[in-house]
Design goal:
Elements lengths: L9 E7 L7 E8 L5 E7 L9 E5 L7 E4 L6 E8 L5 E7 L6 E6 L7 E3 L12 E6 L5 E7 L4 E6 L7 E2 L14 E9 L2 E6 L3 E5 L7 E4 L10 E5 L5 E6 L6 E6 L7 E3 L9 E4 L7 E7 L2 E7 L7 E4 L7 E5 L2 E5 L9 E7 L14 E4 L3 E2 L4 E7 L9 E9 L15 E4 L9 E7 L13 E13 L17 E3 L3 E5 L14 H6 E7 L4 E8 L3 E8 L5 E9 L2 E8 L6 E9 L2 E9 L1
Length: about 575
């Protein structure tokens, strides 16, 4: 099995979970193989909403299909487990009652779900389901909090059709106030472990029929939990993570959890999740999502020493198949953007690579009125991959900045976009003329330029936009600027879009070149008054401002143009609260 080297160019590439709610987090990742995965969600917005949605993929995450479990709205996820592309099990608890819950199963890839043994398993008010695991199509077990006195553990040998509660004599009694943690367990062969809020670890070596328990010696604060991670039947660790300081209290075992020894990890051992990477002697991966403690790290020696891979984004639950197929949860931006990430290898590209190219930029619509969009595309992008931050982004400016050696210092800079790392071969950005960015006030309507930029060796602290970074001029490549007119929706050229017919009839403006020294204006005004007049050049800069008196009805005005060089200009007039825009070419 090939192992991932931390020094190699491995990055998290985003995949879209398909979850509709923005900020959907991934609570649990259940990989079946290198192509099939099932995930369940949680409300990452901070609103504390109960969630019943899940998503699954059959092509390694290129396409995720999201749906919901037909559980009551007061239920929330404990975890999900997939057996194959057709069969999966969904374990949920009643988040309102704080007890009860149920297990649902699908045999058709999620088209339909049925609750198993309703009224039997986890049906008492003191029940709380934590864990489900199947070894194959037949054998599985369920674990829940003590009910009423011992942990509520069931086994099945018919794929979940019927469940038998494990004799309480086979389960060591819990301590006062002891309970399990949703999704916290490990399985190696027939052996299964789960941890508790009292710092203890329960173990069964026969698929859940008989249990022993040991104490790790770790004291768990209220509303906290520890993690356990085993890489074979004998060797593993348990740790308590401090989400404020990033410190770990850790113990290890080499006898399957019978005894535990204090250990001190070095490096960033992140707190969201920790998993063993199959096919390696004792290689672990950890992820972090706590504020100020985000990222990914690897350990080659069972958790004693950790090497940080990245600290660029929040990472939640892990799903690990082998060293080349690893996923981690994140937070959904939209149904078509992010939410889960796959660890992927990228070809290293140095800053001196002759093939580096910001791409050839084009736009599908170079003049947009209210509600219209312009999509800017750069094809043939080839970017460096060196340093902490690298990739591709776009800059909006009021002037052509093609090939600029320092685009963020250009006086014409208007805004920057988020950056994509690593850069895809095609980069796309879309602007909608909705008044949100270019609005006629702080950023006036006019002509602007979109310019792709590729870069490497950048630095920054939790950057989002390109302007959040400090760019390395020796590893910065600026493409050619593409112009686009963003017109006032009320302008005559936009056909009165965004202005009713009465307003359109009240005021209109057209322009033409009368002679070499003057521009002519044809004005229709239902009511006369003082008209404010601005002339914009192709960079969007105001080159002339004035006020003129306008009569009621149709009138003609001349404005001097001797100071204007040849080219295209936009003339914007405002009269009695109404605006109209005209384009004119001066020869």
């Amino acid at each position: 099995m090939t192992c991932v080297s931390v020094q190699a160019q491995y990055v998290w590439l985003p995949q879209a979970t398909g979850f509709t709610p923005v900020s959907s987090g991934v609570r649990y990742v259940s990989p079946v193989d290198t192509n099939i995965l099932w995930i369940c969600s949680y409300d990452g917005s901070g609103g504390g909403l109960n969630r019943q949605d899940y998503s699954m993929t059959t092509d390694g995450g290129n396409l995720w299909t999201a749906s919901t479990i037909p559980a009551p709205a007061n239920h929330d996820w404990s975890m999900i487990q997939g057996l194959n592309a057709d069969t999966a099990f969904a374990l949920l608890y009643n988040a309102v009652l704080g007890g009860r819950g149920g297990l649902w199963r699908t045999h058709d890839g999620g088209t339909s779900w049925a609750q198993l043994d309703s009224g039997v398993i986890f049906w008492a008010l003191t029940s709380f389901p934590d864990v489900v695991h199947f070894w194959n199509d037949s054998a599985g077990f369920l674990m829940g909090d003590p009910n009423p006195t011992e942990f509520e553990i069931y086994t099945t040998i018919d794929g979940g059709d019927t469940w038998t509660r494990v004799d309480t004599a086979n389960i060591p009694q819990p301590l006062t106030g002891e309970y399990g943690i949703v999704g916290h367990f490990n399985v190696k062969g027939d052996t299964v472990w789960f941890d508790t809020n009292k710092g203890r670890v329960y173990r069964s070596i026969d698929k859940g029929y008989n249990w022993t328990v040991s104490s790790t010696g770790i004291t768990i604060p209220a509303n906290s939990a520890m993690d356990i991670c085993f890489w074979d039947n004998m060797n593993g660790l348990a740790r308590l993570y401090d989400g404020t300081t990033g410190a770990n209290t850790m113990v290890t075992t080499n006898d399957g959890g019978d005894t535990w020894t204090t250990a001190t990890p070095t490096g960033n051992f992140f707190g969201s999740d920790v998993k063993y990477i199959p096919g390696t002697p004792s290689r672990l991966i950890s992820t972090g999502a706590a504020t100020g403690l985000i990222g990914t790290s690897f350990s080659e020696d069972g958790g004693l020493n950790w090497t940080t891979l990245e600290t660029s984004a929040q990472r939640t639950a892990l799903g690990v198949v082998d060293s080349l197929h690893i996923w981690t949860g994140g937070f959904t931006v939209s149904p078509t953007a992010e939410g889960i990430f796959k660890l992927s290898y990228i070809t290293p590209v140095s800053c001196t690579d002759a093939n580096i190219n910001p791409g050839t930029a084009t736009v599908d619509n170079d003049t947009i009125c209210g509600g219209e969009t312009a999509t800017f595309t750069a094809t043939g992008v080839y970017a460096p991959t060196t340093g902490a931050y690298y990739g591709v982004s776009w800059i909006i400016s009021s002037a052509d900045i093609s090939g600029s050696s320092d685009p963020l210092a250009e006086p014409s800079l208007v805004a920057t976009y988020t950056f994509t790392s690593p850069a895809p071969s095609t980069s796309v950005r879309t602007l909608t003329n909705d008044g949100a960015l270019i609005d006629g006030t702080l950023v006036p309507y006019g002509q602007y330029f979109w310019t792709p930029v590729v870069f490497g060796n950048a630095t920054g602290t939790n950057p989002v936009f390109l302007s959040d970074l400090t760019l390395d001029g020796n590893c910065l490549f600026t493409g050619s600027s593409i112009p686009c007119w963003v017109l006032d929706p009320n302008s005559l050229e936009c056909g009165g879009v965004g202005m009713d017919e009465l307003a359109a009839a009240q005021f209109s403006l057209t322009a033409y070149q009368k002679n070499g020294d003057n521009l002519g204006l044809r004005i229709h005004a239902k009511n006369g008054g003082t008209m404010s007049l601005q002339i914009y050049d192709v960079t969007g800069r105001i080159v002339s401002s004035s006020e003129i008196q306008v009569n009621t009805g149709q009138s003609y005005q001349e404005i001097g143009a001797t100071g204007l060089s040849g080219g295209t200009y936009i003339i914007r007039g405002t009269l009695n609260g109404l605006s109209s825009v005209a384009k004119v070419v001066k020869l």
